[in-house]
Amino acid sequence: MGEVALSARGPGGRQEIRLKTESSENVSGFIVANSLCPVCSRPTPGNDVLANMTPEPCECGTLPGRHPVLTANEYEGQELVICGAGPSLSNFKPFLQKFKGEVWGANRALNYLHEWGVTKAKGVAIDPGTAMFGEVWVDPPPTEYYLATSVNPGLVWHLEARGHPIRYFHSLRGGDDEPYLYRLLYPDTALAGRGLNVVNRALDLALYMGFKKVYLAGADNALGSDGAMYADGGKMEMDDVWLQGEVDGKKFRTKADMLQSATDLVRAKRDFKLAGKRVVFLGKTLPAALDGKSEAYLSRVIRFAENEPG
């Protein structure tokens, strides 16, 4: 637990505020993005992933702005590419630049897409941490954003201040009576609950919004052959527990949550097929390697992730 002192101007004049922080991520979020409450100028509240169902509003009571929600079947029969930020994403630049349908960028994948000229790409985020506006979208591309109602209020304010349109959906967090509260507070919209990351949740949105065919690009759920985690070659700190194994002779290095999300994407592809729709895995990714495996095989994979770390 750390502490950072910031000075902000509120109704009573300039004052010093001391904020408790859980990690350096939160500190960089406060300082780099400087996303302050639009009413009293306090820095955005911190919100741990496992703390509460939704982020707390500012101490002055200011809530994130009210924005439209995603609606069912609004893209009925159309095609979509959902892009994760994995290392294989860069292999599909030409495909993405020529693609005629919708394109979504999950978290930092949106930045890569706009850098490559795919300016129609929309952003999708579910992360309640401050890193979304403090690191990932410090300078957010000029596009529309699909945000879970559980994102940090600072991300909403950060995008609002730049005039970027926002639409909401819900991302299941596991709180008591969560669906009931969403129905009480918002118009009907998607409740995404698949997997453990934003690409999986975005696939739920795609089904809800009626897309008939969805391509997944950059959804590697594993490190690249050179150890890269991201499409720009960036690497992740290696302090965490990593798993290594083979699928049909191909080696993968991954983490337990990424492995579970990969198996869920395979199951999601089956669900889409039952609904008369298609999911296509682009590239030699971990989900593509698991595609076509039996449920018993996928269950063994999950047991491996849960019981044999390291």
Topology (SSEs and partners):
Elements: E1 2-10, E2 13-21, H1 24-33, E3 79-83, H2 93-98, E4 102-106, H3 109-115, E5 122-125, H4 131-136, E6 145-148, H5 153-160, E7 166-171, H6 178-185, E8 191-192, H7 198-208, E9 213-217, E10 243-247, E11 250-254, H8 256-274, E12 278-281, H9 286-290, H10 295-307
Parallel strand pairs: 3-4, 3-9, 4-5, 5-6, 6-7, 7-8, 9-12
Antiparallel strand pairs: 1-2, 10-11
Helix pairs in contact: 8-10
Summary?
This protein has 310 residues and is of the alpha/beta class. The protein has 10 helices and 12 strands.
What does this 3D model show about the protein?
- 30% of the residues lie in helices and 20% in strands.
- By secondary structure, the chain is of the alpha/beta class.
- An eight-stranded parallel β-sheet has the order 8-7-6-5-4-3-9-12.
- Strand 5, helix 4 and strand 6 form a beta-alpha-beta unit.
- The longest helix is centred in the last third of the chain and has 19 residues.
- The chain is globular, with a radius of gyration of 20 Å.
- It starts with a strand and ends with a helix.
- The N terminus is likely disordered.
